[in-house]
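Title: Prediction job returns without error message
Component: structure pipeline
Severity: low
Priority: P3
Assignee: unassigned

Description:
Job completed but the reporter wants confirmation the result is attached to the right record. Sequence as submitted:
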Amino acid sequence: MAEAIGSPVQPALKRAIGPKLLLFFVVGDILGTGIYALTGSVAGRVGGALWLPFLIAFVVAFLTAFSYLELVGKYPKAAGAALYTNRAFKIQILTFMVAFAVMSSGLTSASSAALAFGRTYLQSVIREFFSDAFAVSATLVAILFIVGLGLINFRGVSESVKTNVVLTCIELSGLLIVIGIGVWAIAMGDGDPGRLTQVDPAPGQHALVAITSATALAFFAMVGFEDSVNMAEECRDPVRIFPRAMLWGMVAAALIYVAVAITSSLLIPADELGKAGSGALLRVVQVGAPGFPLWVFSLIGLFAVINSALINMLMASRLIYGMANERIIPRVFGVVHPFRRTPWISIVFTSGIAVILVSTADIARLGGTTALLLLVVFTVVNIAVLVLRKEKVDHEHFRAPTWVPVLGAITCAYLASPLSGRPADDYRIALYLLAAGLVLWIINRVVHGKVEFRAEKLTK
């Protein structure tokens, strides 16, 4: 939009990101809590064919990625789903709910990471260096973890894409350890390949529902690629480098996930993985390489979930702050601390919701809710790209085949629906979060009346 008369001209963002850094950013955004915390829960839903839900989740995400690529090529700004929704439909409440759903997905994702931190990886480190006698409350640790993230958020965090490369390498090392263990096990003749084709539905459940239910949860592990659209203004020639970097980044992450899933199923029966829950990968390392120091993998896991949680809490608080600045929720959420210069009211609000989530839900439910919220958002984005075809721009850009966003919208909507076998608790948590957003919207409308806002300000 044009600058207001008399307003200072803002300098353009520095275009410092090339194709390699962008590729690492995409891979780093996808890797994290999902695979480290939910492998056991996915196995518990599908059985030994653990690799299949991750593969299907990749295909669905890959279809949606084409829609994001067309939109970021068409509108190469730091933006996201809210902007695309607003441009396509021009319905204020819909744009707001999409933005609030993205914010809520950040909170549920960070909360699942907090539980993985408190209930799994920290507990493993404590057992290694102290003893089982040194017991701590996992839920209390998760709450303190959220409070700690809030304090870091309040203090202010400076991030760079080059730092993300380092973080990605550390997270990646843990998954490569698991894959390496799988290769070694196969070379030694260990493992049971017969498990890789076993689908074990729950009593009275069809095999297809078991697969789609597991896929609906595994989708959580594939999200993150959409965050890269917010780096568009800082990329050199984004129209040219974005498609290749995003798609190859997703392929790389999917190959890693499938390899980890195959290793897990080869070495450990699905019911045992399911019982291990968020500690499934720890169990894989323990069984596949008994001599490997478990505390090393636990520290890598801790780092992975800390990084994911911090990024998501930062995103959530800044989205709330952006909504307040655009006057679509009460302005108090836009208050900035005079010394730290961070949106402290928004930080307290989002941290408080996260504390409630970790106190009342488990990792699988929070992961499932994250996937649900983003699947709904992706359904809207896939439809938006078709609607925006009528809006022409004066530069060349990537254009997806029409059938891709159509199929993307259908598959995302299906995985978000009860037909996929998604548990009712996922909808309950999502509705509570969206209802909270709707209350804030209504309060603002009552106090300030109808307010026009610019969705391009609602960036992560």
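Comment from assignee: result matches the submitted record. The chain is about 70% helix and 0% strand.
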